[in-house]
Design a protein that fits this description.
Shape: globular
Strand order of the largest sheet: 9-4-1-11-10
Helix content: 25-40%
Radius of gyration: 22 Å
Structural class: alpha+beta
Number of helices: 11
Strand content: 25-35%
Number of strands: 20
Length: about 400
């Protein structure tokens, strides 16, 4: 499943959540992810509203007032320790890490010293973790977005008047390479939380890609504006294979051959404990795949080769990520051909717990089937069962639901 966000009215955390829920993300899964953080009680409420006559879902976050000032280190620890599916944890960490970097640039300090004040409040934590959980529940593998409307004017923040776009919003979207414009409204259209979510989840910026539309979700902002319908639209679908002009579309998701980029570097002086975070960060930043190969360098030094596979347009951003996250001083780039099977996503239940399923088809025939191990592990912990037993049960249920690879085509 791929997705595209229409950011004509900007973006905020509640708009993001509303679009996901409206597109079918289960509130229970989003609420469970937020509850896993172990913060003060947070409750979500979804309701249908109208924005310039367009029906949309508004998600409200109900949380108690708190005097706790959370630092980036505090938030990172909570997210790392929470019982979250790894894709959910990865997106939430990426969003807050980017936000910490942006605030550090604005305030001329280091990310570790950033205090999150408004953006670290419980409602923003709920927005970020809830959005990450919603994307995971819907099986969204790649996300694009339009030009982001930012607004203009002034808003009052914790320390006084803040210009719109807010400095942190500009820094977040600058780092992400996002196209932006002020738009017609004299108010804040894109919040720091919304910008952090866009920066952490969007791989490609531009018009809606060629796809077969499966679902549309419309998330509402707080106000009904006169200048523009105050909604964030999420379009979900499957990519269509083909060529428009000189641009191949849907290539990384289908069995049609495509051009991809392989970035590589040899590293012999990085603390090996950092490699899991490096790989996770590269995947979050848009890599199709990232992996390590042990090697032996001159003078018998043990080392690793980092390999990063990505679409050509993601190359510059991922090169920056490699330089930021590793100790390498050079990256080589190779152009390679890539063939990928058509992918679909489904789910089965084991003991009342959802386990995602990934299906791969060749010319309509199911050739591979696998269950999401993060979901297996979470279900095993909840049920008090060994992971291998839940894996066996989930795999059997997936085969019974979707058919055996190589067997007859099933829906």
């Amino acid at each position: 499943m791929i997705g595209w966000l229409d950011c004509a009215a900007g973006a905020s955390g509640d708009m993001f959540l509303g679009a996901l829920v409206d597109a079918g993300a289960p509130m229970a899964a989003i609420q469970a992810a937020i509850d896993a953080l172990g913060t003060e009680p947070i409750r979500l409420e979804a309701r249908v509203v109208q924005r310039q006559g367009i029906g949309a879902t508004k998600v409200d976050v109900h949380a108690p007032r708190t005097n706790l000032t959370r630092t980036w280190a505090h938030l990172r620890g909570q997210l790392q320790e929470a019982a979250l599916a790894e894709p959910v944890r990865r997106v939430a960490l990426a969003a807050f890490e980017r936000l910490a970097r942006a605030e550090a640039v604005v305030h001329r300090t280091e990310p570790e010293h950033v205090h999150f004040h408004e953006v670290g409040a419980l409602d923003a934590i709920a927005d970020v973790v809830g959005a990450a959980a919603g994307l995971h529940a819907l099986g969204v593998e790649a996300l694009g977005a339009s030009t982001v409307t930012l607004g203009n004017g002034m808003v009052r923040g914790e320390h006084g008047l803040v210009p719109v776009p807010a400095p942190a919003v500009l820094e977040l979207l600058r780092e992400a390479g996002a196209p932006v414009w002020a738009g017609p409204s004299v108010r804040e259209m894109c919040t720091p939380t919304g910008a952090a979510l866009l920066a952490a989840t969007v791989r490609d910026w531009g018009p809606m890609p060629v796809m077969t539309v499966r679902r549309v979700g419309t998330g509402a902002g707080s106000r009904d504006l006169a200048e523009v319908p105050n909604v964030l639209r999420l379009v979900l679908g499957t990519p269509v294979v083909g060529t428009i002009g000189a641009t191949t579309v849907g290539a990384t998701e289908t069995a049609t051959g495509a051009i991809a980029v392989l970035l590589e570097c040899n590293v012999d002086d990085l603390d090996p404990r950092l490699w899991p975070d490096v790989l996770a960060g590269l995947l979050t930043a848009g890599a199709s795949d990232a992996w390590l190969t042990p090697i032996l360098m001159k003078k018998g030094r043990p080392a690793h080769t980092l390999h990063v596979l990505c679409a050509e347009q993601r190359g510059p951003a991922l090169r920056r990520e490699i330089f930021d996250r590793t100790s390498t001083i050079g990256v080589r780039q190779l152009t390679v051909g890539k063939y990928a099977l058509d992918r679909e996503y489904g789910a089965v239940e084991v003991g009342g717990h959802r386990v995602g399923v990934k299906l791969a088809r060749l010319e309509g025939r199911l050739v591979n089937l696998s269950v999401e191990f993060d979901d297996v592990r979470a279900a095993a912990e909840a049920l008090g069962e060994p992971a291998k037993e839940v894996l066996r049960a989930a795999t059997a249920a997936a085969h019974a639901t979707y058919g055996d690879p190589g067997g007859p085509i099933t829906g």
